[in-house]
Structure formats: C-alpha cells, structure tokens
Amino acid sequence: MPPILMMAAALAPSQTAAGQSFEALTQAGKDAPLCTAEGGLCVTGTRDGAFAITRDGKPVAQWTAKKEQDDDRFLALPSVLRLSDGSVLVGVGVRRTQMYSGGNAEVIFQRLMLVRWGQEPSTVMEAPYSSDISIRACFSEKDMKHRLDACADQYALTSTLKPAAGTHGGMPDLTLAVKATNYPRGVSRNSDSLAMPALTKADLVEETDTACTYSRRYAFDTATRTYRPDAPLPACEDFTVP
Q1: Helix, coil or strand: residue 144
Q2: DSSP alpha helices (H): ranges in the chain?
Q3: Cα–Cα dist 63/121, whole Å
Q4: Where are the domains of the chain?
Q5: Which of 66, 41, 68, 70 is nearest to 56 (CA)?
Q6: Which residue among 37, 138, 185, 196 has its CA within the 20 to 30 Å range from the CA of 172?
C-alpha cells in the first residue's frame, strides 16, 4: 500500500548501523506529531490516511495511504528505523473495527514503508500488528452460571518487529514475533462457546494460541522490492478479522 517522499540521495544500499534498532516515537501532546527522542524526526498521520514527515522541523515527505477496504482507517505507528544511507522504515497502521451486541473488535495491520529522500516511498512489508476482540458470551442468568460470570470471549494479538543480523538486497533482515491469546481457555470464534462444557475456575486463564503464536524472519527480495518471510504466515482469522 502507500508511502512518503524525501531527500535526494543516491541508490546506496540501505543498512542499519551495528546494533541499531527501531526507535520509539512519542507525542508531546494529544494532537502533537510522533517524534524521535531528540525531536529531529517526526511523523504525523490522520485516520483518513494523510501522512507527513518532518526533519528538524522542515517537511520532507508526505503521502496518502490507500485503502484496501472501504472502512480502513489509518494511524502512524510509534517507531521508525533509520538506515545508514539516510533513508528510513516507517510503520503505518491500517485499523479495522467491528461492533457487536455487547462486544467490539479492533484489528491493526502494519504496513512498513521504505522512505528514501527524493524518491517515491514504497510499501515493503505488511503483517499483523495487534488485535483486541471481545465477544459477548452470556445472554441469561443460566449462561452466567455456565460461564462463571466470564461473560466475554476475549482474543488478543501483539507483535514485535526488530532488525536482525544480516542483509539481503542491501536491506537489513527483520524478525517478526507474534503472540496470540484467548480467554477463557478453550474458546474459539469458530464455535459456540455456550456449547462447551461449563467452565471451571481452572478455565479462567489466558491461553496462548500456539498455532497463531509464531516468529518469522524477513529478507528483502530484490525482484519484488518487498520483504518476504521465511515461511508463510498462518491465517489466524480469530485474531486478524474484526
């Protein structure tokens, strides 16, 4: 999907300095941009997809994120990776939501943009970022007793993206670690939780979904100009569909 525009630089290989990692971006206030600790690099983004980057207070890039679904909304993700040639990897969050009777769902995908100054930015990676899903599970006092008052099925996904040792195509390798959990134990969005046996106190725990908890190593593919994982990502629609 979409991107950014920046400083005129040659097509030198993009590599991280030794030991470099994604830098946190923080806000000084509710409507302030997300900036690096020293304030030299800032990112702004609107829910409609208007993004911009400033460097030392001067505009250096702007772009409009493209929607894959009509109700997509966008946000700037709070980290950036500066590469040794001066270009950067910036995260754009693609947010999708759904309201349920007594519940709600928010799913965010991360779209990693390669921003080389003076060139059209490009999407180089897309992957799950986070999800927070709550589905109502009690509709009567009988249900509440059956569920020991645990009246919402909860599904959560978190992810961590880090640079790894090694490069491919002049770009640093990356590792993505994803953790998915559900509560109570044994619930699934593919089945009626009220059809399960009555819950016990032992079931009132957060359970790791082993099929949807995984790690992938990404290497840059010069043919497609995108990062490719070392194995396909599982679908995990319990966590990736709002």
Answers
A1: helix
A2: 141-146, 237-240
A3: 8
A4: 23-240
A5: 41
A6: 37
